[in-house]
Write a structure and sequence with these properties.
It is a single chain. The protein is mainly beta. The chain is built from no helices and eleven strands. A hairpin with a 4-residue loop joins strand 7 and strand 8. The N and C termini lie far apart (about 40 Å).
Length: about 120
């Protein structure tokens, strides 16, 4: 089992920045594939950013590419999402996800609200 706890959400103005954090426990963190997803009201959950399963390279959805940056610190068992140039369309609940191949474990989510 893996436990994931997100933090860092909140309210931001358009053009502003927020940094999300996700702390993991319960399994060797360095072996886990980590990612961020989000779900806006009335929409399905969508992929935001993550690390490639085979090569670990960073991957981004087209909506956030160039604005968001995912990073991880294996020594702190944590993954981060730096979000810059925020837009009202980024408003959603953001979820941290982990797994060895597929994303099997999910955090409780943290709300991000971007005002125009």
């Amino acid at each position: 089992q893996v436990q994931l706890v997100e933090s860092g959400g909140g309210l931001a103005q358009a053009g502003g920045s927020l940094r999300l954090s996700c702390a993991a426990s319960g399994r060797t963190f360095s072996s886990l594939r980590m990612g961020w997803f989000r779900q806006a009201p009335g929409k399905e959950r969508e992929f935001v950013a993550g690390f490639g399963r085979l090569d670990g390279r960073t991957l981004y959805s087209d909506y956030v590419k160039g604005r968001f940056t995912i990073s991880r610190d294996n020594a702190k068992n944590s993954v981060y999402l730096q979000m810059n140039s925020l837009e009202p369309e980024d408003t959603a609940v953001y979820y941290c996800a982990a797994g060895e191949i597929t994303y099997d474990y999910w955090g409780q989510g943290t709300q991000v609200t971007v005002s125009a």
